[in-house]
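Subject: Interface between my chains keeps coming out wrong

I've been trying for a while to get a sensible model of this assembly. When I model each chain on its own everything looks fine, but I need the whole thing in one frame so I can look at the contacts. Pasting all components below, labels as-is. Any help appreciated, I'm running out of ideas.
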Amino acid sequence: MATRSKLVAGNWKMHGGLMQNQDLLKEIIAGTVGLREVHIAVCVPYPYLSQAQLLLQDTHVYWGAQNVSYYAQGAYTGEVSAAMLVDFRCRYVIVGHSERRASYGEDSATVALKFNAAQAAGLTPILCVGETLAQRESAVTEQVVAEQLDAVIESEGINALAKSVIAYEPVWAIGTGKTATPAQAQDVHAFIRDRIAAHDLEVAASLKILYGGSVKANNAQELFGMPDIDGGLIGGASLIANEFITICRAAKN
Ligand code: PEP
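Reply #2:
Try treating it as a single job with all components included. I did that and got this:
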């Protein structure tokens, strides 16, 4: 069986400022130094990529972005291409975050195009999937997650997933303070892994599946202890140095 190292990735969303970023990043570097077995990343707003690169290069902390255009270049005002992210030495890019699906009309086909653009440029996409509260209450969580996952598998092929990260993020748990119980999260993570295993056992065994949705210092360890949870995508708590550092430490096996 493949042993999967853990990944803790911060999603700063539209937060930050040059001064506060500097303090936060320096504290994260200092607070997680020596935590070799845990991969740590921060996904920052585009304007701060240069600052992230400057402060994080030559450290153990990776950085990335929260969105990417599926176009390579051209008259697409306001868009940012994957090649531009590579210029700033990003390693990761989040694609299909529920906030983008809900507020910017990104459907699964669009997300698959973004996933493709990211990988073609050499970035590691963090593909977000997850159901709304209404969908969970209607017992269609698995169908929703399957549709979101299958759109990428069908367009990119199963081997593309081997070079990506999945984040299961129940929409009802994002920014709400409501966390999925470890058992609820594990059930969906196992479903995702099984669905991938139906295509390719090796890809399924090695793929990191993160949990996201109100992960905090006080619940991370229990979540990360579940067999199919390989770390977290952290929103609000990634903006507070001590919280984020504690979450990173909780990912240590
Ligand atoms: C997120 O934005 O991906 C997220 C999980 O947010 P939060 O941790 O604040 O729920």
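Reply #3:
Confirming on my end. DSSP finds twelve helices and eight strands in the chain.
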